[in-house]
Specification:
- The chain is of the alpha/beta class.
- Helices cover 40% and strands 12% of the residues.
- It contains 11 helices and 10 strands.
- Helix 6 packs parallel to helix 11.
- The protein starts with a helix and ends with a helix.
Length: 313
């Protein structure tokens, strides 16, 4: 190796040692986990596609220029990166980017992925990390301490939050007009669906692939109401299926989230195996919903609303 190459290598090694010292100190103070290799790791626990993710943290300070080395840490963040950022600026996505529950899974083809490990993420030298739940609760702090800007999307509980998040992400990526275009397209689709939904007069029960239903206060509940239905699940939040109630009372329709033959869902036990639930759903009528349209709050929620409205005739 020539002198110049050796100098560059030495500089990179020194930078890595400096970052490593910072994270070692941070882990001592924060009590973060250390994996079997002795290296501090971002929390490996990932959220279920049916479990709400944490609230958003403030957006990073506006960079002097748009980020060119964007890394995404979870499949919810993947959707915003794939849908808004220039493809040649996407450095890596999460390992779940091409899974069946990722709405833009086909757009993720050909792009690199990265594990939720400090060492792996920092080795890419990103100039922006985008996350929703990926990396665990301390990920934003750790990365910011290393000088890496973080865009934390948080949990979108209603359509207004989706609008705000699309605009915030687009502005951070340096493409605000792209965000406005997506919001306009989403609102136009919702308006069309609402006009058709005026004739809907029925209740519906949403069943997720994990065997839970969505009540008031959830993102899915708002989509149900937007489509003109009443929600059969009256208990707030995400709940187990109301099996006792289903034994003597049934909704006029079921909406069932489906992810195809994804390995993380197909073999899992769900209340669908319960004879009451199985019989009720089989009796229908049933509306299939692409689970990827509702697992993370995004502009593509219109697909779910349109499917619900279409099912009403």
């Amino acid at each position: 190796m020539g002198r110049q190459g050796g100098t560059v290598a030495a500089h990179e090694a020194a930078r890595a040692r400096s970052l490593w010292s910072l994270f070692t100190a941070g882990c001592v103070l924060a009590g973060c986990a250390v994996d079997g290799s002795g290296l501090p790791a971002l929390d490996e626990a990932t959220a279920s596609p049916d479990v709400p993710v944490p609230a958003a943290s403030p957006a990073p300070d506006a960079p002097t220029e748009s980020p060119r080395r964007i890394v995404s840490l979870d499949y919810c963040a993947d959707q915003y990166v794939l849908g808004l950022a220039d493809r040649d600026r996407i450095l890596a996505l999460s390992p779940d980017a091409r899974e069946a529950f990722s709405y833009l899974r086909h757009e993720a083809e050909g792009l690199s992925t990265v594990r939720q490990r400090i060492e792996d993420v920092l080795a890419l030298h990103p100039d922006l990390v985008v996350r929703s739940y990926g990396g665990g609760p301390r990920a934003t702090l750790f990365l910011q301490q290393a000088g890496v800007p973080v865009l934390a999307l948080g949990f979108m509980q209603d359509i207004d939050a989706v609008r705000a998040t699309v605009r915030r992400a687009a502005a951070t990526f340096g493409v605000p007009e792209r965000g406005e275009s997506l919001v306009t397209e989403m609102d136009a689709g919702l308006e069309r669906a609402k006009r058709r939904a005026q004739s809907v007069d029925a209740d519906i029960l949403y069943l997720s692939p994990a065997g839970v239903s969505a009540g008031p206060g959830t993102f899915v509940h708002e989509l149900i109401e937007t489509a003109g239905f009443d929600n059969f699940q009256r208990q707030p939040g995400w709940r187990s299926l109301p099996l006792e109630r289903l034994a003597y009372e049934t909704p006029e329709r079921y909406a069932v989230g489906l992810f195809g033959r994804n390995r993380s869902h197909v073999d899992a036990w769900t209340p669908f195996r319960h004879p009451v639930a199985t019989r009720r759903v089989a009796e229908g009528p049933m509306t299939p919903i692409d689970g990827a349209t509702v697992t993370c709050g995004g502009w593509y929620l219109v697909d779910a609303v349109e499917a619900l409205v279409e099912s009403a005739g």
